[in-house]
Amino acid sequence: MMVRVIGGSANAIRRMRAIAPAGVDIVDETIAEPDWIVATTHAQRVEAIQSSGLAPYRVLEIPELASDLDQSQTEAVRAALVTMGSIGAWRTVGSPLGERIAAMVVRRMMKGAAPVTAPGDATPIGVGVAGVRARIPVGRRLDQLLKDRAIERVKRLASHAVRLD
User: What residues have CB less than 8 Å from 115, skipping those under 6 apart?
Assistant: First the structure.
């Protein structure tokens, strides 16, 4: 797991590397995708949130890193690093249940989709190979379709409502 430090002194970064738990790498150069970012000022934190795409809780502001760390500050930073290590790296991992639900939704959408053909192609490509019938709705059309279906479900539920007086 990578933790990028922005604005920290060389001694503070060296001390962070020494106290970091196993599996936590402290870097002070720009890397492609850090899992956590530690900044020394509020402006650096805001810029890091905007540029990295990380969730705000993954970008910390620790002003003490701009100077050398004393013993109490070292313990506080170590506690923060241990917490970061226990939360772990930033990854989007789909759950098996979520993947099954997504597969069901895609199959249901594909039942009504039309073959997709490229200009000049004799055979359908992409979705059309599966032999589906209508185009998959997208954009505003999909939004309207979802809204209409939700209204239909509410009306159907309301028609089944039993009055208890």
Answer: 124, 127, 128, 129, 131, 132
Residues 6 or more apart whose Cβ sits within 8 Å of residue 31: 2, 4
- The residue segments making up the domain with residue 112 are 96-159
Last residue of a domain, one of 68, 87, 106: 87
pLDDT in tens, 93-147: 667 777 778 778 877 777 765 555 545 544 444 444 455 455 566 777 777 888 8
Statement: the pTM of the whole predicted model exceeds 0.90? no
Task: Evaluate whether residue 32 is within a structural domain.
Answer: yes
Number of domains into which the chain is organized: 2
Q: Are 54 and 86 in contact (CB under 8 A)?
A: no
Residues 108 and 153 in one domain: yes
Strand partners, 39: 6, 61
In 3-state terms the chain splits into helix, strand, coil percentages (rounded to 5) of: 55, 10, 35
* 41 and 114 co-located in one domain: no
Enumerate the β-bridge partners of residue 24.
none
Backbone angles phi, psi at 4, to 5 degrees: -95, 135
Residue with tokens 């910390």: 60
DSSP 8-state assignment for residue 120: T
Total number of residues shown for the chain: 165
